[in-house]
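User: quick one - fold this with adenosine-5'-diphosphate bound?
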Amino acid sequence: MTAAVSAAGSERRAILVVNTGSSSLKFQVFNLAGGALQCAIRGLIEGVGTTPQIRAWRGDGRELPAEGLALTPIGQIAQGGQVEQVEHPDTQSLAFDALWQWLPGQLDGARLIGVGHRVVHGGSLHSRPLRIDAPVLAELEGLAALAPLHQPHNLAPIRSLLALRPDLPQVACFDTAFHRTQPIEAELFALPMHFYDEGVRRYGFHGLSYEYVGRRIAQLAPQAGAGRVIVAHLGNGSSMCALRAGRSVATTMGFTALDGLPMGTRSGNLDPGVLLHLMRDRAMSLQQIETLLYQQSGLLGLSGLSADMRMLQASSEPRARLAIDHFTYRVAREAGSLAAALGGLDALVFTAGIGEHSAAVRAAVCDRLRWLGVEIDLQANLESRLCLSPEGAAVSTWVIPTDEERMIAEHTCTTLGLN
Ligand code: ADP
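Assistant: Sure. Structure tokens for the protein plus adenosine-5'-diphosphate:
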């Protein structure tokens, strides 16, 4: 890759951000321009493991041609004339390797100087992003049991890149890290105390999103941002977080990303007695229960139709209505619980796919929270404006698009001392 040199004589540098999910890989390239990060490319590989497809856009919104991206087996990747072999290839590795072959042609000569990864679990030790080497990767692999459906996917591109480009610095940014400010009373399960010491505790997730949104609300509404804020991250995966002065004090997800709100296909909070019943009286296996709770429950399980909020909203089926009503009921109930943890509420923020785009869900949640001082302008809500509440409302209500990738890029720069 030839480094482009600007008129001022300095080479142009870029950071790649990788966010791997179970069936998708999101990525962004940020150029380092002065002290600022400018989004140069953002894209998505969907259908990983089935029929992968990439779409990518320049920072200004123009779509990039993606024909050059072919999902070829890792063993066929030629690196400096050598064919590289990497152990444990999986579909996420294949998607990442395809991205890695496609990317150099899109960088306009900028040089990649670091890669930041979203890693769902940092365990109880990591409250900050971390530069990755082989021992760190091994440690993070050891946490896979705490996030079996996420951690292996997050680590696959890291492993590939350590083999392909060991010289290129990589940084892990953890979804759990932001919640390490929580008091112990919020982290505890009421089990014998040795379980807490052994790591069975509430970790919380979506931390990169909460960190970004917390910072934005502090800019938009400094007084509320310095006070008591609830952020509702409502997407395929959904959770909520209570922030006091920008720091996490409580959150709805716990030991795993299964706890709390019902989600697209995940059950959310469940009476543990249900699990005992499924095992004892229905003889369900561990695998069957895991599939039930992660993939067959939530909006999909309740509606019998779809995990996708847009589909449910468009449906006239009573079960679709019931699924949405249960979802908004649970969001409002969790808001009440988080407000108790905060001792009141100054601002409520909606973010992620449903939070940013579903006026109907926001309206229903806010209606259920009038008792807490939540009040919104219906027209502002229909238009998904930044601020939904009228002047003088006891609680200000906001729609703030999240940007986990920018947060990862910033952490990567800071961790590598690039800014
Ligand atoms: P992920 O957790 O995979 O990042 P997203 O944050 O992209 O998920 O959220 C996906 C959810 O957002 C889906 O349920 C989708 O239906 C919902 N969504 C996206 N746009 C809209 C919309 N205009 N109205 C209602 N729901 C929407």
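One thing worth noting: Residues 1-8, 72-89 have pLDDT under 50 and may be disordered.
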